[in-house]
Amino acid sequence: MSRLQGPNSLKRKRPGSTSDSLTEHERTVHDVIQSKQDMGMSQRDMKREINLPDNLVTKCLKSLLSKNLIKEVKNIQSRGRKHFISVEFEPSTEITGGAWYVEGSLDTEYINVLKEQCWRKIYGLKVATLEGVTDAIKRSNVSQVELSKQQIEEIVKALVLDNEVMEVKSSGTGEFASIPVGKVCYKCIGKRGYGGEPKVGALASIPCGVCPQISHCTPDGIISPKTCVYYQKWLDF
Amino acid sequence: MVTHYGIKYTVNLITTHFGDLVAKVCECLLRKGPLTLRVIVRFTELTSSQVKNSLLVLIQHNCVQAFILEQSGDDGDGAKLNTQYIALFNNIIHRWRFPKFLTIVSQKLDKQCVELLEALLLHGRLTLKQMTDPAKSGQNEGNSFIIPWDDLILDAVLEAFIKLLNAHFIERCPASEPVLRKPTEEASARRRGPKSAKILKEKETLEQRVLEAAAPSKALRFLLVTQTEPADGGKDESNSSSMTPGEKRKHDALESESECGATDEQVVLWRANFEELIRRLRHKFCTENVKAHLDDGAIIVLGAMLEATRSAEKKVKTENSVPLSLNSIYEKVIKNEEGRNITFDRLRASLVQLSCPPFVKAVNESYSIDFKKIIELAQNEEVESIVLKRYGRDAYRMFRLLSNTDCLLETDKIADATFVEKKDTPKILFKLWKDDYLHMEKLQLTGVRQSQFLLWRVNKDTLREHVLDEMFHAALNLSQRVAYELEQEKELLNIPQDKRVNRLRKVRLLWESSQMKLDDAIMLFHDF
User: Fold this and answer.
1) Yes or no, beta carbons of A163 and B520 under 8 Å apart
2) ipTM of the complex in this document
């Protein structure tokens, strides 16, 4: 799982071949790509900025790639289109998607493993601060790459959105006795284990509650309670 | 909140209970607002007699209130008085809840009280005489209002009546046609505001004004005055056990309200007090909701606090209970059988538990129940459950993010926070927006290159009304489907009867439990 990237700084690496061997057109293309720094650009963007025919631009790009002056990266905003960046830069998170993306896609498996591990640490601690969870995750060596406190916070906040964990403020008493008053901390919700479904509401427990067509449903219309297939299934004893 | 499907649902209810004619009159009032008899006749195209009889039925069952609105007369001939009729949406939907009201009473009082309340619910309103005199009232004249308790003596019925009255489960009926004076110039100036808000406020104000004008005074609402005849035949007035010392002037007020020489038994009508019954259901709901999150000790403490502060609540939708000190709470807790073994330390620990989530607030060593928070959390859970089941887990996370944040968020920010692919996020958000679960705004940035950003938020007030309307729609659909199933069963003669009966029974059970559960959710969004 070693696909976590470092901090988003504009790192400059030692460039490849010198620019002396470039043709005028290649230099033009290279310069415009370099000017975009860590954002890079696609061939379509280049067309807007430099007035060169497509086939010439394509040829220049091939040459620059082979000379190791530019590299191709995945842009999560337009995965089907090729995106180029000068070799001395690391692509910005706007292009890559950030720490949780690999090859332009969200690393769902890694995220889910981390979420479960964070939940287990919070469950074990009963009440946990962010620092507590971060330390526990680091000690457990769950991830091959080092995770920052901010990254752990993103995972824990996702657990809050999943309704697996709740965010509370310490009162300084009872179960919060060891935590300063007012500090944000986290507790597991209710009595269910990780991944358990929250209680189903009243409307959600009948066919109308989950029906995507409810706004089109009328008593004597084409979609109606009498003709409803969801009701048919629900009452199929 | 009277929503589109709310009206359809209530009309369906009235049709089921009272038939098409009465339902037509009721629908007219619900859709058009307060009207006079003449105008109702014109809109419904029924005869005057049909409309009058329908109104009588609706008034008898507390679904409509008559009132007289004072209006300036034409040509300087003084104020004109016209009787108008207003439909009481809340009371109509309470009709589905009668079994729940009876359950509440059965948990507090004895069987006779339950049966007496059932009679009141069944017949809408009764005098004490009608309730306690089966031999004289019903059988000979063919208008018996009393359920057949052959072996129930008069005193037992009166005792049950007084118990119900003291617990505020029943009340005096409101005045039949209160007069609403024209609002003064000053009152009108106070209500000036944006036009739409003014119209809404005026509508609410009119119904509220009618109900306030019709309501009996606080002193009389739960007061029973009886009249006994001494041996010499002259009349002597005595008070019931409900009357406390020093209420002579209230008794005089009663005399001025009732006909000369008549007593409560003869003229005063009594009915179920929906306000108290809904309050009890609200408290019950809060307790059960908290039970899902916390342990038994916390529930006992919460129950004790509810019991101690219930009578001080001025309205059903109270936001916070009256603050109680630790000692007061403890005294109440140990009075109950379940709380007898709870120590002071355990009480403190339970109160800390109840503060997270904040079901109970502590201010300066006093504790009060935060009803508003409990109800809000429950409403959020209900809506989130719909989003999860209908749109999936990614949508659920997004919805919770926007609901908790309560401000506009940009699409990519939502994608990052919820760990959803950036290219998939807009599709999910659009689906929620199209079905009115989200509000969307476009932000256009002009510069070197034009960019458009989409911003999203949850508008809680609008959403609440929308979800409530969906609930009414679903409740109506449930009723219609069950009616359809019953019709179909009659035609399925090729299926063995026992199988048909068995299936019908299962359908009915499922329908009843779903209807009750859905009605709990409707109360959560509308009544609590």
Assistant:
1) no
2) 0.81
